[in-house]
Structures are given as structure tokens and as C-alpha cells.
Write a structure and sequence with these properties.
By secondary structure, the protein is an alpha/beta fold. The protein is built from 10 helices and 14 strands. It folds into 2 domains: 118 residues, Aspartate Aminotransferase, domain 1; 224 residues, Aspartate Aminotransferase, domain 2. The termini are far apart. The structure holds pyridoxal-5'-phosphate. The site of pyridoxal-5'-phosphate has 13 residues, from helix 3. This is Aminotransferase class I/classII large domain-containing protein.
């Protein structure tokens, strides 16, 4: 028995209702189950797993993932084609470092998660932004003879618009990448939570030779777990592992092993199914409340997958002052504009993440937004 108390220096204002898009329901995470997996995995694992381990990650988890990815996303791959990551962000960093000497530039969606922009900027990779619409990246706007570019896309659920890339655009993208002799990074951030429409299979299936598929457990489990994976052509694995090792980015073995067992014993699937029902309920309450408060002055999109929606306002510009006023009224929202490359086109849209909010908080949060925007 121990009696340690958690000491914090973080000033978190618990009265603020935060519509952050990247956080799942932390309260509903099955901590006691998970801690059993951690405990038993730790006690049972061979002693050598206390050593650094291999940068590629545990074979046990890679084997589990190769079966799991076939079942859930239709991805066919060998465990040797998988690298375990400490979150998908690490994958963007490793691939950026790997490709930069050959391709100095990236064809990138505009809009794109600003965390990815920061990673590529830190590597001095230049952007060739391509607009997105309600069907994802406008692949028809990519010049067919473009040179020295790799590509990054979010086909299953574009961030932040929430659109899904249709098969015609996928095929066009693959053909183009083949012609210009490059790689496509498929960022599959949150496709586990699909509420309507059919599951669209991964871009990876269309051409496993050139698509690097990156996934994460930040939304499906919890962000501080820092576990993700990438599936890549076998020819790239060795160099990626060298980069991971040279940066000291080893992923802790114990979490890998616990996750592998969690998936193998069926708890992961059960958890996703349970959470999907929960999120579906929250999503409905959010949309109903928005329609109730704002009627026809808003347009809602991106709501078929994931833990957020996008709301476009007819008569509001989300300036810094408006965000400050909202925050003073104890509600935090996120601008679509903050994920743009070419600035100035998305100032009237916000991202509302609902994963980590209770139903009462969602309703109260929208009420607080209305009080300021009325
Ligand atoms: C679209 C998108 N991709 C990737 C990430 C990074 O995820 P990870 O926690 O796996 O590094 C985020 C995080 O919010 C995201 O929104």
C-alpha cells in the first residue's frame, strides 16, 4: 500500500468548458482494466525487456497490430513493415527526416493540423499547399509534373474539415505519386469513430509500395499514452529505425506489451464500441443544441467521424477579441483558421471537440457561446 499524493504545478481552470478536438473522454477510460494489463504484463515479461529494446518496437505488438489492421482497416502487412511510435507525431518527424534529403518539399492539405506544420517547418521542408473541400484534398490541383515533393494527406477524415476522400480522388492521388516517383503519408488519426456511412478502406491498400500509413492510440485510448504506429514499405524500415534510434526515441516496452495484450484479449474492440455509442450520444446533443441556439445562421460539417465537428457562422468572425470574450465567459473554442497555410479564408469557422465533455457541459458550453455571439 502506498499513500502518495499527486502534486501539481499546473493551473487548470476547471470552470472553463473546453471544446478541444484532440481529447477523448478521459473519465470513461477503463483505468482499472488497463492497470491490470500493465501490472501483469510487467510482472510476466522477460527480464531483457527492462533493457532499451529495439527502436522498431516489440515484435509481439507488431504481430498483434498486423492482424488487427487487417481486421479493422483492411491493411495487409507483415510485422516487419510496422514501426511502433510514441504517438503519430513521431512518425511525421521520422518520415520528414528520412525524405528531406530526397524531397525538399511537401504537397500538403490546406487546411492541415498545425502540429504537422510545426514538425515539417522544424525540418525546413517547404510547403506546396493544396486546398481541401467537402471531399478532401483537391487532387486535381496538384501539377502533374511537380518534382522533389512528397505528399501528406488525411483521407479517412480530413483534419479539420472532417471530409472523407472519395475513391476517384484517391486513385488520382496514387497515380500522380507513382508518376512523380514519390511517397504519400496517410495520416489516419481518428477513423475508429465512424458514426454514419460505410467504412472506407485505407489508402494503403491501393499501393502499399508508396503509401506510409500512420495511426495513433491518442484518441482511441488516451493521448499521454504516446503510442502510435506506422506501416511502411519494407525498404524504408531500416533507415527509419536508424533515425528513431539516433534521436533516442525509444517507446517504452511495458506500454507496448500491455497494449498488445489489451488488443489480443478483445478489450480494445469492446472499448471502441462502448465509446462510439457514448460519443454518438454527445454528438447528437451538441448538434441539437447548436441548431436550437443558432438556427439557420450556422452550417455544421465533418460530423460523420471523429470527436469534433466544424461549425461555420454566417455573420461571425472569430477574432482574438472574440476568443478572449468567450474565454472570459468560461468557454474555449478553436479556430479552423489556425490550421490554415494560406491565411484569411476560414475566420468564420470553429472546431468543436466534444470527446472529453459531459452532456451537461456541452449544452452549457453552447449557451455560453451564444451569450457572447448574440
Ligand atoms: C489530425 C491530427 N493528426 C495527428 C495528431 C497527433 O497525434 P499524436 O498524439 O498521435 O501525436 C493530432 C493531434 O491532435 C491531430 O489532430
Amino acid at each position: 500500500e502506498y499513500n502518495n499524493k499527486y502534486i501539481s504545478d499546473e493551473k487548470i481552470d476547471r470552470d472553463i468548458i473546453d471544446f478541444n478536438s484532440g481529447v477523448p473522454d478521459l473519465e470513461k477510460f477503463p483505468r482499472s482494466f488497463w492497470s491490470k494489463f500493465l501490472r501483469y504484463s510487467f510482472l510476466d515479461m522477460p527480464e531483457y525487456l527492462l533493457d532499451y529494446g529495439r527502436p522498431q518496437g516489440l515484435f509481439d505488438l507488431r504481430l498483434t497490430l498486423s492482424n488487427f489492421l487487417l481486421k479493422t482497416k483492411g491493411i495487409k502487412c507483415y510485422p516487419d513493415q510496422i514501426i511502433i511510435l510514441s504517438g503519430s507525431s513521431e512518425g511525421f518527424l521520422i518520415i520528414g527526416k528520412l525524405l528531406k534529403p530526397y524531397y525538399n518539399n511537401v504537397i500538403i492539405e490546406d487546411l492541415v493540423y498545425n502540429g504537422i506544420q510545426k514538425i515539417f517547418k522544424s525540418l525546413d521542408i517547404k510547403f506546396y499547399p493544396i486546398p481541401v473541400d467537402d471531399k478532401g484534398i483537391r487532387s486535381d490541383l496538384i501539377p502533374e509534373n511537380i518534382k522533389n515533393h512528397f505528399i501528406i494527406v488525411t483521407p479517412s477524415h480530413q483534419f479539420p474539415t472532417g471530409s472523407v476522400l472519395p475513391i476517384q480522388r484517391r486513385v488520382k492521388l496514387i497515380k500522380l505519386a507513382r508518376n512523380i516517383n514519390t511517397y504519400i503519408i496517410e495520416n489516419d488519426y481518428d477513423s475508429e469513430f465512424r458514426y454514419t456511412g460505410q467504412q472506407i478502406s485505407s489508402l494503403h491498400l491501393l499501393d502499399p509500395e508508396i503509401v506510409i500509413h500512420i495511426g495513433t492510440f491518442s484518441e482511441s485510448l488516451y493521448p499521454s499514452l504516446r503510442l502510435g504506429y506506422m506501416v511502411l514499405p519494407e525498404s524504408l524500415v531500416k533507415d527509419c529505425c536508424k533515425i528513431k534510434e539516433s534521436c533516442g526515441l525509444f517507446t517504452p516496452s511495458i506500454y507496448q506489451l500491455a497494449l498488445s495484450n489489451f488488443i489480443k484479449e478483445g478489450y480494445f474492440e469492446r472499448h471502441i464500441n462502448k465509446m462510439k455509442k457514448l460519443y454518438k450520444g454527445k454528438r447528437k446533443i451538441l448538434i441539437d443544441k447548436l441548431k436550437d441556439e443558432f438556427k439557420s445562421s450556422i452550417k455544421i460539417s465533418g460530423d460523420s467521424i471523429g470527436l469534433y465537428i466544424v461549425v461555420e457562422f454566417k455573420n461571425v468572425i472569430f477574432t482574438d477579441q472574440i476568443l478572449k470574450k468567450l474565454l472570459d465567459n468560461k468557454v474555449r473554442v478553436y479556430r479552423v483558421e489556425d490550421h490554415s497555410i494560406i491565411k484569411g479564408k476560414h475566420n468564420n469557422k470553429i472546431i468543436l471537440g466534444y470527446g472529453n465533455l459531459g452532456t451537461g457541459e456541452i449544452e452549457e458550453g453552447i449557451k455560453r457561446i451564444k451569450e457572447i455571439l448574440k
